[in-house]
Write a structure and sequence with these properties.
Layout: H1 21-36, H2 53-56
């Protein structure tokens, strides 16, 4: 889906759903902090967010 966009791999921030939730969240937070280097006066901006709805409700049937 992202292959047609001109993005570098550093611009894609993947949450590792195959890991334990707490570990994946911690790794993602660290990745975002390294990439955005947030400060007290500037809030990082996401241009686009994509997600998989079924991951939120794995037991639900489509």
């Amino acid at each position: 889906m992202l292959s047609k966009l001109k993005l570098s791999p550093a611009q894609i921030h993947h949450i590792r759903g195959e890991d334990q939730a707490a570990d994946a969240a911690s790794q993602w937070k660290d990745d975002l902090r390294r990439s955005f280097k947030p400060s007290d006066v500037q809030f990082p901006r996401f241009d686009m967010r994509l997600g998989e709805r079924s991951a939120l409700l794995p037991a639900a049937q489509p």
